Each structure stands twice: as structure tokens, then as C-alpha cells.
Amino acid sequence: MRRLSRHVGQVWVPKAGWVRFRWSRAVPAGVKSYRVTMDRAGRWHVAFAAVPDPVPAPGTGETVGIDRGVVVSAALSTGELLHAPALTGRERIRLRRLQRRLARAKRGSNRRGRVRQAIARLRARETDRRKDWAEKTSTDLARRFDVICVEDLKIGNMTRSARGTRESPGRNVRQKAGLNRGILRSGWGLLVRRLEDKAPGRVEKVRPAFTSQRCSACGQVDRDSRESQAVFRCTACGFAGHADVNAAINIAAGHAVTARGGDGSTRPVNREPQLLLQPA
Ligand SMILES: [Zn+2]
Question: Among positive and negative, which fits the CA dihedral 148, 153, 156, 159?
């Protein structure tokens, strides 16, 4: 690899020779391998493999919990609500228009190819924004908190499980498919991966059972406390707050690991099937 100017470099590609590329970001010293790829939008990339240096912990002893959702991409136990960027309203309108045009275009025609390309470029733009968001957010969290608690969601399983198999068809397939799309789009998996890269040994995965039904103030678990998508109002103590932030506080406390239900004076109202799998 060699540099030609501030914005242009050249890389030796076997069987192709020297290939010029746009030098879009700093290449750390000592990289040994690279990958050349073409994305959905038809753009070629050369990526040099480098493990990012871990971000030093602040040493404040502070723990943060993150509740990852669809409406709010990530709610922090500090009360912050983070939104992964999406396409703008105007871009979405354009995307829908292109999709309609694609449906009308004749198979195999040049026009169809052009429309597909335009759609892919829009989608790639959204993906780029989310990647960028995941990078910035993970660095920020790794810098600000010593311990970062996230839900232990098997994203791979979750995104595959909606439809189920022929033997055991999935339940609520449509709702889950919608949720899964949102999860993929919001870039959860990427965020957690980057957190683990940047804060090695400081990311804790917490079992997610009951985090959304448990009151972060008194510990009561009741499905009815989840008043709506956004509002949590405890049926026992009256504590009210943003539902995702309440869940994030539970995740920070690692409460989900020991979820047991009511505390004796209150009726146990757990109806989540995970209850059976919880250790006593
Ligand atoms: Zn309560």
C-alpha cells in the first residue's frame, strides 16, 4: 500500500495490480491484511484490518444500563434516550417512489437496473449512518462508564425465529417480524460488538427477563405496570417514568438475573414463560 496524495492511495491487489483508492480515514500503523469488497450500492471498498485500541475506563466506578428498543434505539439508565439515525422523511418518500417504479419496470430492462441501483444507494446511506452512530455511541459509552450492562439478546436467534420452522411455526409472526426488522435497522448487534471491542471485559450481558415489567424503584414485577410503549407506572408504589429508562435501570442493576416476582406482600403476577427457566 502506498500513499499518492492526501486523499488518494494505492494498494497492490493480486492479479489486478495497483489499484487507486480514496483515502477516507487514517490507517493505523502495522496493518497486515485488507479486504476489498463491493457493497449493495455498487461501491468498492478497501478495508484494512486493525483491532481498535481499547478505550480506557474512566475509573469512576459508574455502571450504565442500556435498554435497546425499536422506538428509542437505546435508553440509558441515566435517562438519556439515544436514537440511531434513519433516512430523512424526504429520503423515505423517494425510496417509496423508487420502489413503486421498480415494481412497474420490466424485468431485465436497463431502467430496472438503474432503479435498483438507486434504491441500493439509499439503503447504503442509511447503513452508513447507523454504522457511524454505533461507532460514536460505543466510544462515548466506553469513555463515560466503567461497566456497561446490556441485555443478553441472542440477536441472531431473534431475527431468525419469527417465522419458526414447519414443525414449530412461530407465534405472533407478523409482530415479531416487524420488531426484528427494527432491531436489525437500529444496529443493536453492531453497537454491542463495538462496545465489546472498545471496553473489553467491561461489558456485562444481563438476562433480559422482566426488565420491562419490574419497577426500578420498589422491585415489584407486574405486566400491568407497563402502561404503554413509553410509560411505566408501578402498580405497587406508583413510581412512574419512561418505560425504557426504567428497564435500563433494571439492566444496570443486573436485576433480571435474579428476577423472582413479587416480594411476598404483593401478588406475584409474572406471566412471562422465562419464569420457569429462572434459577431459584
Ligand atoms: Zn414500584
Answer: negative
83: which residues sit within 8 A by CB, 6+ positions away? 72, 73
**Would you say 130 and 85 are in contact if contact means Cβ atoms under 8 Å apart?**
yes
244: annotated active-site residue: yes
Q: How far is the CA of 10 from the centre of ligand 1 (A)?
A: 61
- pTM of the entire predicted model: 0.72
Q: Which residues contact 48 (CB under 8 A, 6 or more apart)?
A: 1, 27, 28, 31, 33, 34
Q: What is the full per-residue pLDDT of the chain (280 aa) written as tens digits?
A: 888 998 999 988 888 889 899 988 888 777 878 888 888 778 888 888 877 778 999 999 999 999 987 777 899 999 999 988 888 999 999 999 999 999 998 988 999 999 999 999 999 998 889 889 999 999 999 999 999 999 887 644 554 455 555 555 555 555 555 555 555 556 788 899 899 999 999 999 988 788 989 999 999 999 999 998 899 999 999 999 999 999 999 999 985 443 344 333 333 444 343 343 344 3
Q: Catalytic site residue 151?
A: yes
The residue annotated as part of the active site, out of 126, 151, 196, 222, is 151
Q: From the candidates 67, 126, 196, 222, give the one annotated as an active-site residue.
A: 67
